[in-house]
Design goal:
The chain has eight helices and four strands. It is α/β, with parallel strands linked by helices. It has a four-stranded mixed beta sheet, sandwiched between helices.
């Protein structure tokens, strides 16, 4: 199920609501289509394609007019850049894992601030960040949760989530929410008052 489908968003929203009934923490789910720009890598790939095309003209056994060299390079460069920007597989390869992970780290921290995860009364907000292109998750907890939970449970949940396929992303998010809810229920059970400080609907960024 595509995570952008209304049915998938409804399932995630219900999972957040159910998890929050067992804990005083606030879960916030943010879905980002792509955590950062890879334009420099796309352009570099285009340059590589252009150089290959130019080399073909230079070393070809056939004779070409010199004026074709620039046109050949520009056409190949444009086509290579465009293909790289539209192919998620190719763009992922040229971007490199380290660059992708760095972008997810940065985008998750921005989302944490933008969505007010750190603004709950008792500092018990928990962000579940989903980056679709990078196929990666992050869990960021506020101070009121960190002191009682630590990093180990989140690392385990993320490790078990693995790298989901686009068709399974929504199901994986629901599973992450359920596991995070179980951890939070044990560490931060609900008090007599358990207000819903942040809406449960996932934020889908553009």
């Amino acid at each position: 199920m595509n995570i952008n489908d209304p049915e998938a968003l409804d399932r995630i929203e219900k999972a957040v609501g159910k998890a929050e009934t067992g804990t005083s923490a606030e879960l916030v789910v943010v879905v980002h289509p792509q955590s950062g720009s890879y334009l420099d890598r796309e352009l570099l790939f285009g340059v590589g394609v252009g150089v290959v095309a130019l080399a073909f003209l230079v070393f070809s056994p056939w004779t070409f007019h010199a004026a074709l060299a620039l046109a050949d390079f520009l056409i190949a460069f444009t086509a290579g850049t465009w293909v790289c920007s539209w192919s998620t597989t190719l763009k992922g390869l040229v971007a490199g894992r380290r660059r992708r992970e760095k972008n997810v780290d940065a985008a998750s921290r921005v989302a944490y601030l933008d969505e007010g995860v750190g603004a709950t009364k008792d500092r018990t907000g928990v962000l579940i960040f989903v980056s679709l292109f990078e196929r990666s998750f992050r869990i960021l907890a506020d101070f009121g949760v960190e002191g009682r939970v630590g990093e180990a449970p989140w690392n385990r949940i993320l490790r078990e989530a693995g790298t989901p396929t686009p068709a399974k992303t929504a199901e994986t998010v629901v599973s992450v929410i359920e596991k995070a809810g179980a951890v939070l229920a044990e560490a931060l059970p609900p008090g007599e008052e358990n207000p819903d400080e942040i809406p449960n609907r996932p934020r889908v960024l553009q």
